Prior knowledge:
Helices cover 42% and strands 14% of the residues. The protein is α+β, with helices and mostly antiparallel strands. The strands form two sheets. Strands 1, 3, 4, 5, 6, 7, 8, 9, 10 and 11 form a ten-stranded mixed beta sheet that branches. It has a two-stranded parallel sheet with strand order 2-12. A hairpin with a 5-residue loop joins strand 8 (269-272) and strand 9 (278-286). The longest helix is centred in the C-terminal third of the chain and has 27 residues, at 358-384. The termini are far apart.
Amino acid sequence: MARFPFGKDLLMLPRSREGTTPSPFALEALARLPLAEAVLSLWSYVLQPGFLDDLFQRHRGRCYTDTLTFPAFVDLLADALVRHRGSGRASFRGAAEQGTLPTTPEAVYGKLRRVPVALSLGFLEDVTARLAPLLPAGAGPHPLPVCLGGLTVVIGDGKTIKRVARRLLAARGAAGKVYGGKLLVAYLPACGLVTALTADRDGEVNEARLVPDLLPRAQARIPGPRLWVLDRQFCDPVQAQRLLAIGDHFVIRYHKKVHFVPDPARPARTLTDAQQREAVEEWGWLGAASNRLRCYVRRLTIRRAGQEAVAIVTDLLDGEAYPAPELLELYRGRWGIEQVFQQVTEVFELRQLIGSTPEATVFQASFCLVLYNLIQVIRSYVAVSRARPLPVAEVSAEQLFRDAQEELTALHKVVPSGEVVGCIPRQWTLGGVRERLRQLLGGVWKERWRKAANRKPRPHKPKAKGGNHTSVHRLQEAHAHKDRKDDPKT
């Protein structure tokens, strides 16, 4: 049976029902909607019910299913995120009206509130592991320097899940902004996929505290040796030593709060970066002399007129093997993870949160990242399957996603769901999916899918000062403590 995250009738078919024999009209309609068929084919291969059941059993912890199975739960959430722009109420109510909801909408909300964080992390990582082999060779959105050919570049960054509705009793009346969970992700610019993830229920937690949890997850999913590209909140000897201890390397933006002690035996030298700006290259120790975790690094600094200087530190000490301009350019590419977070929020509806507990926000964020990875695969085939292949970075994921939505909606309107199921093979092989994606996306290019060029640099704007904020987790903890204090039996 075909499974995909767009359209309720196609999603919520009974699991035991086979697709009906497609009519000539259904086959012709699908042939005219190549993006829709590509998404259907990819989703049917990646999220097979047996795979989802196994994933649930491995990561569920003490959670269990009864009437509402995990595959059906995934269908409902996918329908809410894509078809109904993040409205769980519209998705669950529509399923109830059609008789395809095996339980009540309240029960679905309850299950979402209690999704274990471990299941959310495993959902992203296991699904992405099935998606990654489908990527065409050499289709990464961000080309990497040649000197880094023996390393796997990993961009790490954190994201706070915001805009949580104050539905929980503990959150009602809370002043300021209310946050959900906190994510720390590992993004591979070579393929454009978010591959590993860790999370904390407390959205106020420092991202650096999540590094010990992310590293073993990244080791299990990403071949080494890895080169971590990190922002300055991770700049301290503790994080550097954690990376070095597992044989990894780092390029981290330098934070002025951390001591840098120049090596008098290696004088600094001046050079230019890729934009012909003057840069200073130094060697020395990251950390004060009294810090037992201090490590020897190379620091590269660019002084910008009228702006804050940018400095990075790295354990790649050989300036000839790893030229400074290429490492500085690599750090500039760290902005790619910020673009991922922006698209996950604005395009895949993370700004419209369905659940109000930390666990619910983490699962929705994990699901949005899966949808992002899915579109990256489609985007890569669109780019490389043209008569004149394009760099993947020039294809707009947002425009491609919107057109795929329109095609799937059109298919849903004119073809009975059972016939659509019969049009898509139920058992795909890896090679079969690859070949079908090449066939479908080889001649579908539209010029509106080309990403608009950012020709004029945007003026630098200082960040606005935020007001009061807290996390749902801290509000729940405070509420539970108050209840225990007020209980005369305790």
